[in-house]
Automatic annotation (TrEMBL):
It comes from the Bacteria. Transmembrane segments: none annotated. CDD domains: GH27. It catalyses: Hydrolysis of terminal, non-reducing alpha-D-galactose residues in alpha-D-galactosides, including galactose oligosaccharides, galactomannans and galactolipids. One of its GO terms (molecular function) is alpha-galactosidase activity. Keywords: Disulfide bond, Glycosidase, Hydrolase, Signal. Residues 348-433 form the Alpha galactosidase C-terminal domain. GO terms for biological process: carbohydrate metabolic process. Belongs to the glycosyl hydrolase 27 family. Its EC number is 3.2.1.22. The lineage of its organism: Bacteria, Bacillati, Actinomycetota, Actinomycetes, Micrococcales. The keyword ATP-binding does not apply. This is Alpha-galactosidase.
Length: 438
């Protein structure tokens, strides 16, 4: 079996703009935009987030007792009033086929456990003599979503139900499944059961887990053996304090990133969000342009998966240009050993320095973050970012700004190894540089 998620996934997710309410037409509009404008730089996945099975879904919350669309075995089905191609028992197969025809991958969100409605109806578990009541643990519930009970993993009906659910997803052509309410608290047996069900399905499906509120690195080995993505925070929104908090979390998790096992700093609340979302109203992201570059740079240097949260067709061109910057996908896919080198409180803000390197060249990637609310000029010794390697160090380094316009007019200054980098740092901003040896 091929290694799943050998590089961090890049794509679009419906949550930040549409919450529980996204429709098939909106998914396809974003998929076509992604394929036309962003696929060449690595963006290749489209994820339908929570409650696609609720025909009564609304903005700003969840519906207790909703008339969820379920099949005869208690497995969620796409609500046909929102996903008309699902009619006639087709499920998500037509939508998956449409995305695959665009050379995109298709992902869906599901909740941990089994629908309460399936338990109330005592629906049979596919291929067994058990029912949903045998499979359910009615004492295990989600603190923020009313749709499901947990599963009783001491009863074989629980694994049988999950096996049937994942078999259905695999039959639809799903490439990624985001399973929610798994990590806070940490449901180790549910994680293992999902990994088992995916293996038994016979399809390569990336397993993504969320949310990661207070997630500890003590779980690292367990996660690596079973999932390909796991969140390291609660939901992240378009607030500077949310972005700033990820500096510390990613400094902790970045040294542990490896192919097929990615700590996930959450979606990118960029462009047009809040259209029918859980939080806030219809808006362009409240992050400033400098804060947006900080967010993207930090995620890339830490090799977090990138999932764009804004509605692509109606996002501003500047946001699309940030996403399409070739350095974003290139450094995310090829950068190695991304880590924090320096963090210093300068009184009016923190100076935070990250580095990574290219695997086949002598290029170093450097991100110098400034968390202060006013601009700052700072001199940074070149040795603080390139160090003193055992092999002979290059005598000179050519510096490229990875967030420049790319118009070919920007000069690329050359520095001696003992020089300082003199940097103008914007408020809540970053200077993202490539240092080429020679």
């Amino acid at each position: 079996m091929a290694l799943l998620a050998p590089t961090p996934p890049m794509g679009w997710n419906s949550w930040d703009c549409y919450g529980t309410t996204v429709t098939e037409a909106e998914v396809l509009a974003n998929a076509r935009f992604l394929a036309e404008h962003l696929l060449p730089t690595g963006w290749d996945t489209v994820v339908v987030d929570i409650a696609w099975y609720d025909p009564t879904a609304r903005a700003h919350g969840y519906n207790a007792g909703a008339p969820l669309a379920l099949d005869a075995h208690g497995r969620p089905l796409p609500a046909e009033n929102r996903f008309p191609s699902a009619a006639g028992g087709h499920g998500f197969r037509p939508l998956a086929d449409a995305l695959h025809a665009l050379d995109l991958r298709f992902g869906v969100h599901v909740m941990r456990g089994i629908p309460r409605l399936a338990v109330e109806r005592d629906l049979p578990v596919r291929g067994t003599t058990w029912t949903a009541r045998d499979a359910a643990d009615t004492t295990s519930t989600c603190a923020w979503n009313p749709d499901n009970y947990g599963l009783d993993h001491d009863h074989p009906a629980a694994q049988a139900y999950l096996d049937g659910q994942v078999a259905q997803l695999a039959g639809w052509g799903v490439d990624l499944v985001k399973v929610d309410d798994m990590l806070a608290p940490y449901h180790s047996r549910a994680i293992e059961a999902w990994a088992t069900a995916i293996e038994r399905s016979g399809r390569d499906i990336v397993l993504s887990l969320s949310p990661g509120t207070h997630l500890s690195t003590a779980h690292l080995d367990h996660l690596r053996g079973r999932a390909q993505m796991w969140r390291i925070s609660d939901d992240l929104w378009d607030r500077w304090e949310d972005v700033h908090a990820q500096l510390t979390r990613l400094a902790r998790w970045a040294p542990h990133q490896r192919p097929g096992a990615w700590a996930d700093a959450d979606m990118l609340p960029l462009g047009r969000i809040g259209i029918r979302a859980e939080r806030g109203e219809d808006r362009q992201s409240r992050l400033t342009p400098d804060e947006q570059r900080t967010l993207l740079t930090l995620w890339v240097m830490a090799r977090s998966p990138l999932m764009m949260g804004g509605d692509l067709p109606t996002s501003d061109p500047a946001t699309v240009a940030l996403l399409a910057n070739p350095a974003v996908g290139h450094v995310l896919r090829t950068g190695q050993d991304g880590r924090e080198l320096l963090r210093e409180d300068l009184g009016d803000g923190e100076l935070v320095v990250w580095s990574a390197h290219a695997p086949t060249t002598r290029t170093r990637y450097v991100a110098v973050f400034w968390t202060g609310s006013a601009p700052r000029r700072h001199s940074l010794p070149l040795t603080s970012v390139v160090g003193h390697p055992a092999a002979p160090a290059p005598e000179k380094w050519t510096v490229r700004d990875l967030w420049d316009s790319g118009d070919g007019e920007t000069s690329h200054p050359t520095y001696a190894a003992e020089d300082d980098l003199d940097l103008d740092l914007p408020p809540h901003g970053v200077r993202w540089l490539a240092l080429d040896a020679g």
